[in-house]
Amino acid sequence: MLRSTFLNFNGQDNLVTQKQLFKEVKNTFTIEFWARPEDIRESEKESRRGVTQTLNQRFAVTPVFGAYKDGNHSLAGVGISVGKNGISVYEHTTDYLPPVLVFNGSINGWVHIAVVYKNKIPALFINGEYARTGLKSLRKSVVPSGIFGGLNPYGFYKGGLSEIRIWSIAKTGEDLKGIMNQELSGEEEDLVAYWKLDEGFNSVVLDSTPNQNHGTVLGAKWSSYQKRELENKNLNVLFTFFVPSGGVETLNRQRFYALNKKGIKCDFLYSQSGTGLQNKVNTSVFITSSDEEIERIIEKGSYDAIIVCSDLLLLKKVRSFGYKGLLIYDNQGLGFNKEYAENYLKNHAYSDIEEYTDAIMYPKTPHLIEAFEKIFPSKKKYCFHNCFDTNSFKYEAHPKVNQIIIGWVGRIEENKNWKDFLTIGAKLIQKSPNIHLWMFEDNTLSTKDERRNFENRIKELGIKDNLTIYANQPHSKMAEYFSKIGDSGGFLCSTSKVEGFGYAVLEAMVCKCPVLSTDSDGVRSFITHDLTGKFFQLGNINQAVEQGEELLSNLPLREKIRINAVNHINENFAPEKYVENFIGMINDLKN
């Protein structure tokens, strides 16, 4: 955050400016500010009609009545409700108070929030990153509001606010990143209002623009804090999971490399052996399911925090051993479909997570965000991208293979959806016999029945001569394989039903291997259709073949995707960002 002084709202006070509605700024504008919410807000479905329930809203920006004073019912004032569980944008005039944009996600500590209207369509940016687009307003005009902190009977904000700005243009994400940590002069073009909230005393706040729309503090208190460097001295962390394989094993190695560089000691505990153990890391890796051994490991390790991925039984055991440190439940994916996640958390996981953990952490995967926010509205939650070191794993130049290669990475099981990949591959081979399929799998994890079905399907499709199966390849070799696939003119095809965080997709992208994928949720952070990759609808084989053929034949599009994909991963999944988020989480929980 830019300033150490801010206004703190206790849930029943506000800040009222002289101009309560900015009626001259219509339909296209930007409202930005820093916020540190301390309570949750009521989450409702997006709507463009009627008056919805405003009880328990946390209006950092109050949705001022659009017909205020002049009775113009076609004009609506915009308000922004901010809670620890997300952000909602409301519009208000006569018989009209709907949430036109609803974002459900964890908001922890200070965050920069911007609501950008463009031709009456709102979009939300958090810390300069695009989060969501809402519904287009049905009112003739929408305008920014000039009351902050709430108003009876609509609900009051609880928490800190700082650096409130209103612009008469629609700012982009890059614009916001460039200015959100910079102090402005107030003379900037298109800047309509600017309250720094740095006074620290009295009840008047100054508008730093020439418009001089000053405000009056009604009850909110001035607060300050000292900016602290991230604390990680002697931090000692244990990460646990069932088996060292697949995406979680990749994640553990990646966060080890990132955190270890900052002096954080990371150990790993798995309940059984797995093929990922061939990927060596220079730390302690324990393999045991014995309660006695686990208890000794925890006691000897003196861990500041234990991060338990998915294993609910272990949460209870760790507390029963007398462990008093931070216990965090980590989830990287849930179930075979998106509906399963909410049902599982509600009916099987709720009591263990609620009783034994200090917090929950998970990647920015939409169905995980929605499920955890709904089932655990009051629990401490931390949602941030996983990381990837593109310096050690990246594109490699190799002699070009003679065939066009289409790759697939996964397990021979239901969720990875190998059946659709074989069908898609067979149809593409019919059109171009020079195509060859490479499948990378962990053959220790499939059942006998699934393996038999897999082998029978290969015979039925008649593609045995066009298929190579690579079992249990060391991670160090995958950059070579992905690079060869990309240079062959082929692509990686991901057919998963649900992914929490699709590391195989990310790894292919950084090796200039284009990706065609189902919208399996966990890959949305990586893929924008026809920009950084391609999507097809789950189960729609014809669409997959059509999109695959375009990747094979449209060379300008293919090259654009390859370049954009590498740049996107480099910019958004840097290890440094993960370290900052992780240490911030630990410090927040400690304090």
Notes on the protein architecture:
About 30% of the residues lie in helices and about 30% in strands. By secondary structure, the chain is of the alpha/beta class. The strands form 5 sheets. Strands 1, 3, 8, 9, 10, 14, 15 and 18 form an 8-stranded antiparallel beta sheet that branches. Strand 26 (about 405-410), helix 7 and strand 27 (about 435-440) form a beta-alpha-beta unit. The longest helix is centred in the middle third of the chain and has 19 residues, at about 340-355. The relative contact order is 0.10. The mean pLDDT is about 90.
Strand content: 25-35%
What is the count of helical runs?
13
Distance between the termini: 18 Å
Shape: globular
Oligomer: single chain
Mean pLDDT: 92
Helix content: 25-40%
